Amino acid sequence: MLTVAFQWEEGADRALGLPAYETDGAAGADLRANFPDRGVVMLEPGARALVPTGLRLMVPAGYEVQLRPRSGLALKYGITLPNSPGTIDSDYRGPLGVIMMNAGEEPFEIEHGARIAQMVVAPVVQARFEAVESLEATARGAGGFGSTGVR
Ligand SMILES: O=c1ccn([C@H]2C[C@H](O)[C@@H](COP(=O)(O)OP(=O)(O)OP(=O)(O)O)O2)c(=O)[nH]1
Q1: What is the pLDDT of residues 98-141, one digit of tens each?
Q2: Where does substrate bind (predicted)?
Q3: Pocket of ligand 1 contains residue 67 by CB under 6 Å
């Protein structure tokens, strides 16, 4: 099985534990807000914030970590990740942060220890890019953006 190594940030609350899969078949492991000294982070409607997880990580080469919203928070409170899926590169060694946005109508309180997002480990392919004079023809051609109908 693939290993993702984590390092706790100085001052982080280690009692919160590492990200964890909540069920056997879960694709995403839940990430927790980790800011023991700040109490709560208040997200006003329309506002966004970079929420610390207290962690740094080492994603194996050939993989990435995607940060995705939790559907429960999205449906109930309109809490989204504006850059979803957030991309964590395999060569990144800085603090793991979650950009959270309140697209709901009410202020939302993010508490220390709250499960704020989920991380999915996924394979990535780095391609070689080349410029050519013409592209292979297809039945679709340039059709897109609803060319087959929108309903
Ligand atoms: O939600 C996120 C998105 C990114 N990152 C970290 C890990 C990632 O590897 C790094 C860079 O992210 P990205 O490539 O999305 O940022 P950028 O705006 O393109 O900045 P850069 O020029 O540093 O790549 O920031 C996070 O901690 N959380």
Answers
A1: 999 999 999 999 999 999 999 999 999 999 999 999 999 999 99
A2: 70-72, 83, 87-89
A3: yes
Q: How far, in Å, is the centroid of ligand 1 from the Cα of 92?
A: 8
- Dig out the tokens for 114 from the structure: 């709250």
Q: Could you give phi then psi for residue 71, rounded to 5 degrees?
A: -65, -30
Q: From the CA of 67, give the closest atom in ligand 1.
A: 1
| Mean pLDDT to the nearest integer, 75-81 | 98
- Ligand 1 atom closest to the CA of 97, numbered from 1: 27
The pair of structure tokens assigned to 137 is 């023809």
Contact predicate 70/117, CB 8 Å: yes
Atom of ligand 1 nearest to the CA of 95: 27
Ordered by start, the domain boundaries in the chain are 5-123
Q: What is this structure's pTM?
A: 0.95
Please work out whether the CB of residue 50 comes within 6 Å of at least one atom of ligand 1: no
Burial grade of 98 (CB within 10 A; 0-12, 13-18, 19 or more): buried
Q: Indicate the CATH number for domain 5-123.
A: 2.70.40.10
